Amino acid sequence: MISEFQETLPHQVEALHPTMPPKNKYANVLEHLDSGIMLFDSEGTLTFINVQMAKLLELPRKSLAGCNLIQILLHPELGRFKKKKIMRIYRETIFHRKRYHELIDEYGRHWLITVTYGDQMHGDFLFSVKDVSDYKQIEQTAYQNDKLAMLGRISASIAHEIRNPLTAIRGFIQLLRPHLLQLGKDEYARIILTEIDRANDIIYEFLNSSKPSAPQMTVIPVSSLLKEVVLLTESEALMKGCQIHMEERAVPIAVSIDVKQIKQVILNIIKNAMDAIEGVGVDHSGEIQIGTQAAGRYVQISITDNGQGMDHNTLSRLFDPFFTTKESGTGLGLSVSYRIIKNHGGFISVNSVKGKGTSFMISLPQV
After folding, report:
1. E strands of the chain, at which residues?
2. What are the tens digits of pLDDT across the range 350-362?
3. In sequence order, what are the residues at sequence separation of 6 or more whose Cβ sits closer than 8 angstroms to the Cβ of residue 140?
4. N or C: the chain end with fewer CB closer than 10 Å?
5. Contact 263, 229 (CB under 8 A)
6. Is there a single domain that holds both residue 55 and residue 173?
7. Which of 210, 242, 274 is the last residue of a domain?
8. How many domains does the chain have?
9. Within 10 Å of residue 166's Cβ, how many Cβ atoms?
10. Model confidence over 198-217: pLDDT tens digits?
């Protein structure tokens, strides 16, 4: 009886799971890859496209079968942005024999495109497209950490060498100030002292960007901190042609923070917002909206302006040390802010559209 069972079992299993022809099996695997796949034959005709690639092109698969490159480019539903990218990849592949392409799409995602051709493909061209946004984010974070570590090493070596001479110069200028006053040149002394203080402030920012001091925590309602910041900035905002509106919450939310450090972060973001609004033009009615909300174990502080906004390139480098779009900026303010929020166990994010404005979101742990 057992021998009969052993003989019949393979046939029963085969009946339940018929063997799939290898060709169909491999096609099914390609269909459901998370990478986009396109195959052109030696005549330039599209012979295969998987589901993911059709989604990336935002075109129906049925309308692409049997098309050549020209017909795909002339497809009425293909966006202008994608047409330009396809043309660029075609030129670099055919004329420059480039097999790997990296691009950023209109949604800010990073893609790696690999082209396979040659004798092993018998004249066919295989295009595979993979979303590498996560890898790019990891790479960018590692790069950011490397730069901050380098910044720390540089700051440690130069801080002593610069601050000591500045202190000595400041002291001698103060000793000479009465003599300059007698000569009617006190304005020179004032300018020198102001510039020395500015240099010291830059060095302080520089040192903080590499290693901000450990937070001295105090429990405080978020609303009281924001009201104080609004009072400090509203007169400057009016001078720059904008108004600050703060959303009042019925139920206060408390956080444990270093008040001085978080105030520095919020002031920096609001001043950047004022500069962005001022850059639009004198006829622009600027507004800065400040709001708070609870989100799980975090409290979120949003600072939104209707200024000139930022493009993707600026956004991707916004928290990099020394990166600035201002003529007189040091490029350290947002880098310091990023590190301060991180040291508080929170995080900071930003969304911006060129010509429409920018929104910063600061998330801090609730008490």
Report:
1. 36-40, 46-49, 100-104, 110-116, 125-131, 218-221, 242-246, 254-257, 286-295, 298-305, 347-353, 357-365
2. 999 988 899 999 9
3. 316
4. N
5. yes
6. no
7. 210
8. 3
9. 15
10. 787 767 766 665 555 677 88
Domain, as residue range, for 199: 136-210
Q: Which residues pair with 110 in a beta bridge?
A: 104
What b/e string do you get for 301-326 counting C-beta neighbours within 10 Å, with b at 16 or more? bebbbbbbbbeeeebbbbbbbebbee
Looking at the structure, do residues 110 and 159 belong to the same domain, yes or no? no
Among 18, 24, 59, smallest CA distance to 38 is for: 59
Cα separation, 346 vs 270, in Å, equals 19
**Residue linked to tokens 């920096």:** 268
pLDDT digits (tens, 9 = 90+) for 259-302: 888 998 999 999 999 988 887 766 668 899 999 999 889 999 99
Task: Identify whether residues 155 and 290 lie together within a single domain.
Answer: no
Q: Which of 308, 301, 293 is nearest to 265 (CA)?
A: 301
Q: What are 60's two structure tokens?
A: 């129906």
User: What are 172's two structure tokens?
Assistant: 């001698």
Do 127 and 142 fall into the same domain?
Answer: no
Rounded Cα–Cα distance for residues 362 and 22 (Å) = 53
